[in-house]
Design a protein that fits this description.
Blueprint lengths: L6 H70 L9 H12 L5 E8 L4 E5 L15 H13 L3 E2 L3 E3 L3 E12 L2 E11 H8 L2 H6 E6 L5 E5 L11 E4 L8 E6 L6 H51 L3 E6 L4 E4 L1 H7 L3 H4 L14 H12 L8 E6 L5 E12 L5 E10 L1 H56 L4 H29 L7 E4 H11 L1 H7 L2 E6 L4 E4 L1 H18 L9 E9 L2 E7 L7 H4 L17 H11 L3 E6 L5 E8 L4
Parallel strand pairs: 17-19
Antiparallel strand pairs: 1-2, 1-6, 3-5, 4-5, 5-6, 7-8, 7-10, 9-10, 11-12, 11-15, 13-14, 14-15, 16-18, 19-20, 20-22, 21-22
Helix pairs in contact: 1-6, 10-11, 10-16, 12-14, 14-16
The structure holds adenosine-5'-diphosphate.
Adenosine-5'-diphosphate binds next to helix 14 and helix 16.
């Protein structure tokens, strides 16, 4: 598993960057292509518009030419009777104007060039009045008369805004020119009359003079940019006039506009989806890296574990094992995953037990505190494992199987076994030692009952000799019998103590045995006038051998009483306390006796150590054997009030 900062991951990030270039490139190409397409289409539209413009203006020019020529023809056909008086001329003029001819005035000039008729009369300041002074008109007149064909004059201004031009059409009769009909065109009106409406809807049509000045316009709007326009020569009337057409900006066709708009929208959608996709991929990438990091961390943790982990599906199939588990049993993960019971690592001799536990776990009844099983390593070695099973919960919170953790406790078990065996050996050695001690102390232990039996029997014999009634003798004999039974019990228990594997442990209420031991010493206590103070907790129960415990108590009490032999009678007090503390029963026996010299304290428990002339030195040794046999402790200390305090600690529950 690589870490996010590892070279492999950097390389992957690099590859990702490369992958990102593709959609960006594709997007740029797409937008570029769309733009180019729109531009080409726009250009094609423009060229088509321009071609249409050229053909339209050529058509218009031709149309105007025809128009002017038709007017020339009409004017040339003037009947001379129409020139006779003003009324006739007006009638002719009205007919001529009626064709939407663009003509605004007609003038009849005689062969000498004088104005004979004019309609309307007052329109042309150049012609009315001194007709001979109108220079352009004069030239045109002469030219028309000499050529015998229509001649157009140069455009001239009419008031401030308008421009006009004239056509001089000679009228001949029998080979000689009899006059000239002058038609005056006002350029604006000519355009208004002669340019068809459909053309006027599409273009602004102007007539431009030789100096570039606009002489007349037919336009829907006041001013326009003229770069796109096209112009052709306007001849006739000539004199450098030109027709100029500028197309209006017609709205783009709906389909084309829709296409452009949809392409733009499409590009925006592509851009947006790319952005969303990128965001999504980046988020995924971050999550993936986080997952990888987490996975790496967990894997490292799993690999470093000493605890074997094994996951099983609900029907018992192995779905996961960690390296520690594989090491433990010597099978690889590939060999184990997918296996169903019986597993190859189940120990042959424990198959039934293992299967039973397997079934219990799958049924959800496995012990919560864990359980021990014996497995078999691939190499045949057996191993003890401590297993804890827990439900395996999936991402939806449902149980998908069982996860078991396994600790190899083979060594611990072996160590425990070794310790147990050693303890057994020690115990048996101790018992042997104790037996030796016992053997040498039997005399000591039996001394008391035997002495009692002897004195009871002597007493009984004396009574019989004195021929006392049997009722007097019987109590002494009963006591002798009781002492003999006690001596027998002591021997049996001491014997059993020396035999390994046998103990007579039972629930023992300690206070009762303190009472029993005191009862045995009752005679001495009364004889020596010893006060007994008892602070016994009567509930204290332990597991123990009642006879041995009683024997130990008896020895301690006897020592305590004997130690007070030289104590002043009013000071003779024996305090016995029993209670529980921290899992132990604690018993103290405090006397006000002679106390123990520091010099002998170290050997007190040694067998055969005694300071008494008639002592055996076995009492305390036996006490310690008994207490230790109950896994307890025996100790002593000086009593602050004088004398000695012996402590016995005995565990409340067996281990
Ligand atoms: P014995 O009583 O036969 O001497 P024990 O083993 O019972 O043997 O005692 C060993 C010695 O310990 C005694 O001789 C005595 O000196 C000393 N001892 C035991 N208990 C007490 C006691 N309560 N006070 C003073 N000395 C004691």
């Amino acid at each position: 598993m690589e870490s996010p900062g590892s070279p492999a991951s950097t390389e992957r990030t690099g590859r990702w960057r490369w992958l990102w270039v593709l959609p960006r490139l594709a997007f740029i190409l797409f937008v570029g292509g769309v733009g180019l397409l729109l531009w080409i289409s726009d250009r094609a539209d423009g060229e088509e518009r321009r071609a249409t413009l050229i053909s339209d203006i050529l058509w218009l020019e031709q149309n105007l030419r025809f128009h002017l020529m038709r007017n020339e023809e009409v004017l040339g056909r003037i009947d001379l009777t129409h020139t006779a008086d003003a009324k006739a001329f007006e009638s002719f003029s009205r007919t001529a104007f009626g064709f939407e001819s663009g003509l605004r005035q007609l003038i009849w000039l005689g062969a000498d060039g004088t104005v004979r008729q004019a309609h309307p009369i007052t329109m042309d300041p150049n012609l009315v009045g001194d007709a001979g002074e109108a220079v352009p008109s004069r030239q045109s007149f002469r030219l028309a008369r000499s050529l015998g064909k229509p001649v157009y004059g140069k455009a001239y201004p009419y008031f401030t805004n308008d421009w006009q031009f004239e056509v001089h059409v000679p009228v001949s009769r029998q080979g000689s020119v009899v006059g000239v009909v002058v038609g005056v065109y006002r350029i604006r009106d000519l355009l208004g009359d002669s340019v068809p409406w459909w053309l006027a809807e599409r273009y602004r049509i102007s007539v431009i003079g030789d100096s570039g000045k606009v002489l007349g316009t037919r336009s829907k709007v006041e001013s326009m940019v003229t770069e796109e326009g096209y112009q052709v020569a306007f001849d006739p009337p000539g004199w450098g006039l030109a027709l100029h057409a500028v197309p209006y900006h017609a709205p783009k066709p709906l389909a084309s506009a829709l296409l452009s708009a949809s392409l733009v929208i499409l590009a925006l959608i592509v851009l947006w989806s790319l952005w969303i996709l990128r965001r999504h991929v980046l988020r995924r990438q971050a999550v993936e890296e986080e997952l990888q990091r987490e996975h790496a961390f967990r894997k490292a943790m799993e690999d470093s574990l000493d605890t074997g982990m094994r996951a099983r599906s609900l029907d018992g199939e192995i779905i996961y094992v960690n390296p520690a588990f594989c090491r433990m049993i010597g099978w690889s993960a590939a060999e184990l995953i997918g296996r169903r019971p019986p597993m190859p690592y189940w120990a042959d001799d424990y198959l039934d037990e293992t299967r039973a536990m397997h079934d219990r776990v799958l049924a959800g009844e496995g012990p919560e505190e864990g359980f021990e099983l014996r497995f078999k390593h691939r190499n045949g070695n057996l191993l003890d494992v401590l297993i804890h099973e827990a439900p395996l919960i999936d991402a939806r919170g449902q149980q998908s199987g069982w996860m078991g953790s396994m600790v190899d406790i083979t060594e611990r078990k072996q160590a425990e076994e070794r310790t147990r065996q050693q303890q057994d050996r020690l115990q048996s050695t101790a018992r042997l030692v104790a037996m030796g001690e016992m053997a040498s102390s039997i005399a000591h232990e039996l001394n008391q009952p035997l002495a009692a039996i002897s004195s009871y029997c002597t007493g009984a014999a004396n009574l019989l000799r004195d021929q006392k009634p049997a009722t007097d003798v019987l109590p002494a004999l009963d006591k002798a019998v009781e002492q003999a039974r006690r001596a027998g019990q002591v021997i049996r228990r001491i014997y059993s103590l020396a035999r390994p594997g046998e103990n007579r442990f039972e629930r023992v209420r300690l206070a009762e045995h303190v009472d029993a031991a005191l009862a045995l010493m009752d005679g001495d206590i009364r004889q020596k006038g010893i006060r007994i103070s008892l602070e016994l907790s009567r509930q204290v129960m332990i597991d123990g051998d009642p006879v041995l415990l009683e024997q130990a108590l008896f020895n301690l009490l006897r020592n305590a009483i004997e130690s007070m032999r030289d104590t002043a009678p009013d000071q003779r007090q024996l305090t016995i306390a029993l209670n529980c503390a921290e899992g132990y029963a604690s018993l103290t026996i405090a006397d006000r006796g002679c106390g123990i010299d520091a010099g002998v304290a170290g050997q007190l428990f040694d067998p055969l150590f005694t300071t008494k002339a008639e002592g055996m030195g076995m009492g305390l040794a036996i006490c310690r054997s008994v207490v230790e046999n109950h896994r307890g402790r025996l100790s002593f200390e000086a009593n602050p009030e004088g004398g000695t305090v012996f402590h016995i600690l005995l565990p409340l529950t067996p281990k």
